[in-house]
Amino acid sequence: MKALFKHGNGRLKTSRITFLVFIVMLVCLSLVYKMGKSADKAIVKIEHVFKAQKKEVRQLAETTEPPVKYPAPEKKAENRHPVKKNENIKVKKDLQPEKKVASTSPSGSTTEKTVRKNQRVKEKVNISPEPAEKKQIKFTMAQDLSTKKKDKTLHLASKDYFEVYKHWQAQGETMDKGKTLVGVRILNLENVYDLFQMKPVAVKEDVPHTDLEDNSRVASASLSEFSSTCFVVTNPWEKWEHALKQAGFSKKNNIAVRYYTYDFVRNSIYARALKAFEWSVEKQNLPDDTDPSTADVLGVVYAVNKNGGGSFGVFVPKQVDFNSNLSVKIDPMACFKGQKDIETLNRAGIL
Amino acid sequence: MDFLRWFLENFGIFFGSVFLFYFFLMIRRLVVLYDYLRDVPKGENETVLEKTGLNSLSFLSSLFQRLEKSSKSQETYSSFVVDAIWAEIDCRISVHFQAISGYVSTLVLIGFAGTIFGSIGAFNEMFQGLASGKNAAVVFAASWDKGLSTALYTSLGAAAIGGVVLTLIGSRFLLTRAKRLEAMVSLKICQILERGAQ
Known about the structure:
Chain A is α+β, with helices and mostly antiparallel strands. Chain A is built from 12 helices and 11 strands.
């Protein structure tokens, strides 16, 4: 050690020591710098832990409850954000929730159940009787949805997780904001809305009233940070009965439930829905100027979890329904070719 | 690495690099001074008279031998050797004090230049932003990135490093020991000349 830093005559090797001191000082300054930043990181990690625990409970609920539900999007009827006519989003209040039908359906063979489910899907998407070929498409889709229900969660290592997350978020950045929007329906939104940072709000007489996550009163001004587009639950008393009762509402009240969402999430969802619409137009050789408002996109949300905590949702369109009774099943790998989040879900065998 | 990235981002690539380089040079001079002065007593109770044989004067041993030889033969030549000894001390010790003082002065000037340079960039960004109708927060953030951080951090860095180094130079660790070293050399010369006279 002495020979490393001292000459034979006892003098110090000043260049070496200078380098050493310089490096040590930089390391010390780096440590001080990191200590100054560590508090923020710790807070973020704690939040992740809480979120992850909450979502695990939700995932469990998702696998045990009857699954398919249909919140339909519409423009928010809030004074601060008047409805824009060019964003034609459908509300299908006549649709019956899957939960109710499933509980009253008689027992029978698996095939019979699947066929009945198929028929229910047709009812929900408001489609008139179709030729046999189309029925087959519907049948396959319904079967897919039921069998893959338990596999809507993907677990990724940190690096892959962030890559997929960035890709999913980038969807909305490239969306043409002035474009007419297609209608969007999300099957399992009530189970995964928190993966989209959505806020479920009970709306009384068209005025936002109660936050259904904590029963706190919602001031309209507090929702101004959210998008002017929100998703509406079709049968709020079926899907949010417990929360609505806890909030003091009764069925006599004119109550609606909306999921308020941030613009970047809304844009990501609609970008993907529009892509699915364009793909189905091209696939069916429909005119290029087909109005997106004459169709709606049915999709599912998949949860992507990071090992160690953290998760988000990815919206994957499954089917596009046109007003002309035409339904097109979406092939995600063909429609969203090159999109990393879709490819990752597919590789994991989830799609 | 995070710290270095932060340092170069906020000081600017040019001023950040210059600061680091001067920082390195100052450390080098301080290490050299430490090498020469580490054996010199710094305590007020310690007397230099008892320490004249220490390693601290070893770098002058050849000159002391020369002085001893001169003092025994021709007393008149001894004054030249004594001058050589003080010149050597200047070369080995005093020059480093002057160099460090010079670095501090230069660093203050560099800090001042960084402030002016950064301010020009920041004002330029501000004027452009305001002229194009951007909101205040965006303009301020852009100004910070385009020079305001350099302007403020270079001033702060120069003041901090300059202050610390000047304090260190004037401390008992360096200046007192340097003066003591001179005292020890004087005493050593005196001893040698006395021995030569006998």
